[in-house]
Write a structure and sequence with these properties.
The complex is a heterodimer of chains A (531) and B (57).
Chain A: E1 2-8, H1 15-26, E2 31-38, H2 41-49, H3 55-58, E3 65-71, H4 76-94, H5 104-110, E4 116-119, H6 123-135, E5 139-142, H7 149-162, E6 166-167, E7 173-176, E8 179-182, E9 189-196, H8 199-211, E10 216-221, H9 234-245, E11 251-256, H10 261-272, E12 277-282, E13 295-297, H11 301-315, H12 320-348, E14 357-362, H13 365-377, E15 383-384, E16 404-407, H14 411-414, H15 425-436, E17 440-448, H16 457-471, E18 481-487, H17 496-505, E19 509-511, H18 514-527
Chain B: H1 3-9, E1 13-17, H2 20-28, E2 32-35, H3 46-56
Parallel strand pairs in B: 1-2
Classes of the chains: A alpha/beta (531), B alpha+beta (57).
């Protein structure tokens, strides 16, 4: 075995492109392991931990590109280099021929009407650029993570002082003026505004609102930490004030993991004085402090969407057609769930009695948390890598134990690797592992479509399921039941209809919300008497 | 009217710093977007960046 590296100094590529190169190189015959990246300290640490460090890599800086590979024969590196060159040439050809300035200043000179900055640079550089954007009076969506709480506070206070929107850091989802930004779905416009500290939570709620015949005025992301004591809900409070004044917003939905008590109190005070109707989903927390008849608490993302749509329909002149569409959609969802439970129960009969546990493999952290809360609410003991009840923390996130819900977007899995919503290999590998586990009765998964996501996440799941089936002999045709909650609209770039067909053809049961999918899983896991 | 409420009434015009895929998706949706050909300042040398920032101030 040999270790060889290919280096291109002063050649910067973003993480999505690097991931593409990795995937191509991994396919090369004779390549045992490969790491592609920019010469950041973190990447160099990873190279060392994989025992692939070379002198050349040691000396690289963050603006230098490298590929280092463990290969079976020396000459294989020649093939790898050729592949890299051809990918780079292809990229050059595909680059849009348009002006691409080198700095924010020159971009604003080129187009002085710019009013919004979308920033997804590595965290250490993103802070300065976000600050510059705010100085230039731009509203900011900061997708980047790895930014300290102190810096977050600094940026948010500066934005507040200037009256600007500072979504993030770590803000994955927003829809402003109907435009999906980063990870978001193509949903209808309407009179429901969403303010969310959870990206996938907001995606599921906005998609269900669309499915029930209503739409979104604005979807404002705050970043995951906004409702913690240190940050004090700066962005959520600013967003509430803005949506309160927005004529196109009649109903306001708030979504977050449980906020700190102080922040919750501050927000509830605001809601008490509000003229608009609110639906609040502080995932997993109990309702308290609010006696306002205009504030409604929801306990699942599905319930959040239903309540918001119901209120939205009441807030406008009754339109029979809209009401009927909503009613029909709810009926269809119920029928689908009933049918899914029946078919899952049928499948249970064909499986070995040894199978008794559920495994949740999620790309969305909030979706994993919601599933876990629903299962625990039904009396099931569920282990997880999500923070919470210490008795049920998985000692190793890579190994499931009994009933387990795993957030595969956790740092443990994404350090040096792309998030599974962009590149699902991490989950595909884990799916195979869980399918091979003879104690597993049912596997629960999310499948998130929309902008930002992988081009065909359903296809990835379906291919993995088909691959797993190929491995089995006829006698072994005893494999776990697969339940998938698909989050997407028929206007999303991935084809929703085909995604569902692909999954169903691969043997999965497909439903349209995390709550639905989890209820099905709870039903069949409990039906065999184990929990 | 607050700046945020003003934004809700304007056409979104975006500058994108970072992932090219976000730029591509916005273009496909016919959003006015300028992509910055970003490189780490001073080749990513943190000490140099700090000095440059001090000089700018």
């Amino acid at each position: 075995m040999f270790v060889a590296a290919e280096i291109k100094k002063n050649t910067y590529y973003d993480s999505v492109y690097l991931m593409r190169i990795t995937k191509e190189i991994e396919k090369t015959e004779g390549v045992i392991d490969v790491l592609v990246g920019m010469g950041t300290e973190l990447n160099k640490e990873l190279v060392s931990s994989l025992s692939m460090m070379t002198k050349e890599i040691e000396s690289l800086g963050p603006n230098d590109f490298f590929v280092v590979a463990k290969i079976k024969r020396e000459e294989i590196m020649g093939v790898v280099t050729k592949k890299i060159d051809s990918l780079m040439n292809e990229k050059k050809k595909n680059n849009v021929k348009e002006h691409s300035p080198a700095t924010l200043d020159s971009a604003l000179k080129y187009n002085p009407e710019i009013n919004f900055a979308l920033i997804s640079l590595p965290g250490e550089y993103a802070i300065e650029e976000a600050k510059k954007a705010l100085e230039k009076n731009l509203h900011v969506m900061l997708f980047s993570d790895n930014i300290s709480v102190e810096k977050e506070i600094e940026l948010k206070l500066f934005a507040k002082q200037k009256g600007l929107l500072m979504m993030g850091p770590d803000c994955g989802t927003a829809i402003i003026n109907g435009i999906p930004l980063a990870f978001a779905n193509e949903v209808s416009r309407g009179n429901i505004g969403i303010i969310s500290a959870s990206g996938t939570g907001a995606q599921e709620v906005s998609v269900l609102i669309d499915k029930l015949g209503s739409g979104i005025s604005q979807l404002i992301g705050t970043g995951g930490r906004d409702l913690k004591d240190e940050i004090g809900g700066i962005t959520m409070i600013q967003a509430i004030e803005a949506l309160e004044k927005d004529e196109n917003t009649k109903i306001i939905v708030l979504i977050s993991k449980p906020p700190s008590e102080n922040v919750a109190e501050k927000i509830f005070k605001m809601l008490n004085n509000s003229k608009k109707n609110y639906v609040v989903n502080f995932i997993g927390s109990e309702s308290k402090n609010v006696s306002n008849s205009k504030t409604h608490f929801a306990y699942s993302l599905e319930e959040t969407a239903k309540m918001a749509v119901e209120l939205a329909n009441k807030s406008t002149v009754r339109n029979k057609e809209v009401d009927a569409k909503c009613k029909k959609a709810i009926e269809e969802l119920k029928a689908k769930e009933k049918e899914a439970i029946a078919s899952a129960k049928n499948m249970v009969g064909n499986l070995s009695v040894q199978r008794k546990y559920m495994r949740g493999l999620f790309t969305g952290g909030t979706l994993a948390l919601e599933a876990m809360n629903i299962l625990r609410g039904r009396g099931m003991e569920v282990y997880s890598n999500l923070a919470g009840d210490e008795r049920f923390i998985l000692s190793n996130a890579n190994d499931s134990y009994r009933n387990a819900c795993v957030d595969l977007g956790d740092d443990v899995f994404t350090r040096g690797r792309p998030h599974p919503m962009i590149e699902p290999s991490i989950r595909n590998e884990r799916l195979i592992k869980e399918i091979r586990d003879e104690d597993v009765l049912v596997i629960l998964m999310d499948c998130v479509l929309g902008y930002g996501s992988h081009e065909n996440p359903a296809g990835e799941i379906a291919n993995t399921l088909n691959l797993a089936k190929k491995d089995m002999t006829n006698e072994e045709n005893d494999s776990p039941i697969i339940v998938v909650s698909i989050i997407g609209t028929n206007k999303d770039p991935q084809n929703l209809k085909e995604s569902i067909i692909d999954l169903e053809n691969a043997g999965a049961i497909v439903v349209f919300s995390t709550a639905q999918a989890t209820r099905i899983v709870a039903e069949i896991t409990k039906s065999i008497g184990e929990c | 009217m607050s700046k945020i409420n003003k934004l809700f009434r304007e056409e979104l015009k975006v500058v994108n710093l970072g992932l090219e895929s976000f730029h591509r998706e916005l273009r496909e949706k016919k959003v006015e977007v300028v992509h910055i050909n970003w490189r780490p300042c001073a080749g990513g040398n943190k000490r140099m960046i700090e000095l440059l920032n001090k000089l700018k101030k």
